[in-house]
Amino acid sequence: MFGNMADMMGLMGKMKDLQARMKEAQDQLSGLVETAESGGGMVKATVNGQKSLIGLEIDQDLINPDDKEMLQDLIVAAVNKALETIEPKIKEHLQKATNGLLPNIPGLDLSGLMK
């Protein structure tokens, strides 16, 4: 009985370590940055690892009130591409931050803890 209790306490300690490391890793995600473009570089969107849009550049030639829809589409495309390309960097960062704290369980995705 005492063996199980000691195992349980050890596991609880590991969970506390994991939570602390995850918090630290999440705080560091703002330092991960990815820029993507659309329209042949006429629109550039920059996102960080916390999935926030932190920069948007629009070529002057695109700013035309008569063609607002195309500009909107290009902005959406650039932002979505940047978010898509930063996703693997986020996963890699979180895996490195929690390396050794959890057994390697195939399919375990810690990105759900990011909310």
TrEMBL record:
It is found in: Cytoplasm, Nucleoid. Keywords: Coiled coil, Cytoplasm, DNA-binding. Residues 8-35 form a coiled coil. It comes from the Bacteria. GO terms for cellular component: bacterial nucleoid; cytosol. Binds to DNA and alters its conformation. May be involved in regulation of gene expression, nucleoid organization and DNA protection. Belongs to the YbaB/EbfC family. Homodimer. NCBIfam families: DNA_YbaB_EbfC. This is Nucleoid-associated protein DYBT9275_05104. It comes from Dyadobacter helix. The gene is ybaB.
